[in-house]
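Exercise 7b. Backbone tokens:
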């Protein structure tokens, strides 16, 4: 059965190549837009870190203990913000990278009429959708967990105050 599938080939006509070329242009656009978004996210992270660093007016506090506790909280908030933003930038990087690679390989495949380049393009498209699928499953699982925790908390609170 596998030999039969290896012997079969798919030929792409002008319309199919045109559709691939149009798809390539859109995926390149979204890849570039995504990288710009990631850059803006990281720039916003740096700006927020600088603003959080300059926020607490330490002269307003009555004691040294107050200054230290607020300074520690602001420092922790700044570090947490930077860490979360960098993690989100890394998470968002890979789908846009796969789209970019799909666009590049598709462009070469259309220009050279190369099945190897088209195979690499489709491999990157598969990686893109696999990554998005896993990401959606993770997000839905987190949402479900949040709803379960919120429901349990509400049930607990209704017993206390009800």
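Sequence design result:
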């Amino acid at each position: 059965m596998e030999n039969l599938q290896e012997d079969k080939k798919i030929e792409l006509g002008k319309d199919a190549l045109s559709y691939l070329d149009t798809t390539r242009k859109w995926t390149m656009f979204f890849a570039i837009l995504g990288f710009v978004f990631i850059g803006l996210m990281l720039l916003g992270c740096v700006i927020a870190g600088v603003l959080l660093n300059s926020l607490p007016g330490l002269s307003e506090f009555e004691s040294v203990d107050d200054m230290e506790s607020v300074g520690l909280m602001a420092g922790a908030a700044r570090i947490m913000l930077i860490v979360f933003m960098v993690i989100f930038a890394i998470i968002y990087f890979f789908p846009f990278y796969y789209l970019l690679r799909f666009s590049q390989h598709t462009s070469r495949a259309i220009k050279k009429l190369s099945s190897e380049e088209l195979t690499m393009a489709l491999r990157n498209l598969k990686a893109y959708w696999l990554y998005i699928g896993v990401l959606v499953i993770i997000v839905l699982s987190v949402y479900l967990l949040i709803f379960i925790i919120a429901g349990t908390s509400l049930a607990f609170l209704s017993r206390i105050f009800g």
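Instructor comment: The longest helix spans residues 64-112. DSSP finds four helices and no strands in the chain.
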